[in-house]
Amino acid sequence: ALPLGLVDQLGGLTEAVAKAKQLAKIPADQSVRFKHFPKEKSPWQAISEMFGVQTEAAKALVMLGGVMADPQAQAVMQRID
Question: Phi and psi (nearest 5°) for 58?
Answer without folding.
Answer: -65, -45
